[in-house]
Specification:
Layout lengths: L2 E10 L2 E12 L4 E5 L4 H4 L1 H11 L9 E7 L11 H11 L11 E3 L2 E2 L5 E2 L4 H10 L4 E5 L3 H4 L6 E5 L2 H9 L38 H13 L3 E4 L6 H7 L9 H13 L15 E2 L7 H5 E2 L5 E2 L1 H4 L4 E5 L6 H6 L1 H6 L1 E5 L4 E5 L3 E6 L20 H11 L2 H4 L3 E4 L16 H18 L13 H7 L4 H12 L5 H18 L11 H12 L5 H8 L1
């Protein structure tokens, strides 16, 4: 009984499973059967593959019974990217292709009725998963060959049609074929989009020394930030400039982020690894699926995952739906987001910097000083708005800063520090953290578990005393005390000059961390001392 096996990959979020596509072509009542929990789009692969093989002049075994098994059979398989593996397995079982040519090879691509290949999302995470399981050759649609080649140790064949794939497997001359259209045409759009952010710089902002230093600490340690203040004070301008002080991604982060964008279908032909930290600023009317992830059929990454290793900015975050705000609690603690459905649970990476911004009230005109307030909000609106400001999400934010209106004396002062200068200091602080956490599962201070922090990098008793006092007085929660410890480490990393010197936060660093955490003004001499 002729049986042949081709291989492809099934994705559950960013996790890939190597799938054996086994084809049996044997005498019997003519028909096509596919088993192994295929979804609707995959069940239709039989008709697509039959017409693709016939129109490619390769010979479909029309008088025989064809059975396809997708193994392991307990996993749900989704998507038309299995088409190429199904067609090759049928041809190998019918002895049109040698089964030996399928060894250590994976096939990814959707087929058209004419036998052409179409691009599919998620090629990079698929090839990563295949390489981890010993696959050394992979066939993909031609526009995605560059994407697949980002995985080291894998020979990539970019093909245009089923005829070309079969010719390559047979060792014959590869025939010509029409080019494959790319999956996306977003580069044809004419607005500037994120390119506008390439021109901004912290030197553009007058004053705001307190908030700028908070942004510096947040970028150095990967801490979450809450910016509050009246409308027009500069909260959005500050958040947009945080990516300009983040260093380029390390190779592991770049590969993770590029795989996420591949899964979302956001990579263009010719794109290289994404090495610059991403910036995402969804509108407050965005759906939970667009921010957290999900969608019909295969789960797609949301904005929180597409901002992995970068910045996710939620402007006017109290206006976001309550279920979205609650969903952000998990990634702030664990660095990933889990999307659970009836028949599957998908976990996606989401370890980026969260930056929140809000007004003092829904209309933005509330002022503490008597006679200054022009607020038109009703008392119930104020209560609902402030309930979100003090909710569980806010307790998971490391830094709280109030951004006030620009004062007259802040205009026309000495030149402000540039983003390039701040970026150099952030990079130096992160190098110290990478040295400290070498071999660990985390990279930045904001990611270190509290228990490990206390055991391996404890504070001196004198430095610890202010934290304990605030904890016992009820001004800090236990979670908040851990976050102050992390912030103190980051402040010390920024102040340390010698890379080889062991960094131990002192009383000044802890005091600065407490002020950052509790929203109290920073001491000017300490800000100037670090900036110098």
């Amino acid at each position: 009984m002729p049986v042949a096996t081709a291989r492809s990959v099934s994705l559950q979020g960013a996790l890939g499973h190597l799938i054996d596509v086994q084809a049996d072509v044997s005498p019997g009542q003519a028909g096509f059967t596919m088993v192994g929990r295929p979804d609707v789009s995959l069940r239709e692969a039989g008709d697509r593959c039959r017409m693709a093989i016939i129109n490619s002049d390769l010979g479909w075994p029309a008088t025989k019974r064809i059975t396809i098994l997708l193994s392991p059979a307990d996993l749900t398989k989704r998507g038309p990217h299995f088409d190429l593996a199904v067609a090759v397995a049928v041809l190998a079982a019918d002895e049109s292709v040698s089964p030996r040519s399928l060894t250590d090879t994976a096939f990814i691509g959707e087929l058209t009725l004419e036998g052409g290949l179409r691009s599919v999302p998620g090629v990079l995470p698929m090839v990563l998963a295949a390489a981890e399981r010993g696959i050394r050759h992979v066939f993909v649609p031609e526009p995605q060959a560059r994407e697949a080649s980002m995985v080291p140790g894998v020979a990539v064949f970019g093909m245009r049609s089923l005829q070309q794939v079969v010719a390559e497997l047979r060792g014959e001359v590869v025939p010509a074929a029409p080019p494959v259209a790319p999956m996306s045409g977003s580069r044809l759009l004419t607005w500037r989009g994120e390119e506008r952010l390439e021109e901004v710089d912290f030197a553009d902002l007058d004053g705001m020394a307190d908030a700028k230093y908070a942004a510096l600490v947040a970028a150095a340690g990967g801490h979450a930030v809450l910016l509050s203040g009246p409308k027009g004070a500069g909260k959005t301008s500050l958040a947009e400039r945080i990516p300009t002080i983040l260093p380029d991604l390390i190779p592991e982060e770049a590969l993770e982020l590029t795989a996420i964008h591949s899964l979302a279908g956001a990579l263009e032909p010719g794109d290289d690894l994404i090495t610059t930290p991403p910036y995402s600023a969804p509108h407050h009317d965005a759906s939970k699926t667009s921010i957290v992830g999900g969608g019909a059929g295969q789960v797609r990454p949301g904005e929180i995952s597409r901002a992995h290793a970068g910045v996710l900015f939620l402007d006017e975050f109290p206006l976001f739906r309550a279920d979205i705000i609650e969903a952000l609690r998990q990634p702030l603690e664990s660095g990933d987001i889990t999307v659970a459905r009836r028949d599957e649970s998908v976990t996606l990476p989401a370890r980026g910097m969260l930056v929140l911004a809000c007004n003092p009230c829904p209309c933005g005109n509330y002022a503490v000083k008597v006679g200054r307030s022009q607020c038109t909000c009703r008392s119930q609106q104020l209560r609902d708005y402030r309930a979100k400001l003090g909710g569980p999400l806010a307790d998971r934010v490391d830094i709280t800063r109030h951004v006030g209106p620009l004062q007259p004396y802040e205009r026309g002062g000495p030149p402000a520090e540039t983003s390039a200068s701040m970026r150099a200091r952030v990079a130096a602080a992160r190098r110290r953290q990478h040295e400290r956490y070498g071999g660990c599962a985390w990279r930045l201070n904001a990611h270190v578990p509290g228990s490990v922090l206390r055991d391996r990098w404890p504070l001196d008793p004198a430095a610890r005393r202010p934290i304990d006092s605030a904890l016992y007085a009820g001004h800090l929660s236990s979670r908040g005390a851990v976050r102050v410890h992390r912030l103190a480490l980051t402040v010390a990393d920024l102040r340390s000059v010698d890379l080889d010197e062991e960094v131990v936060p002192g009383e000044d660093e802890v005091d600065t961390a407490l002020r950052l955490r509790m929203g109290e003004p920073l001491l000017v001499d300490r800000i100037l001392g670090v900036a110098g």
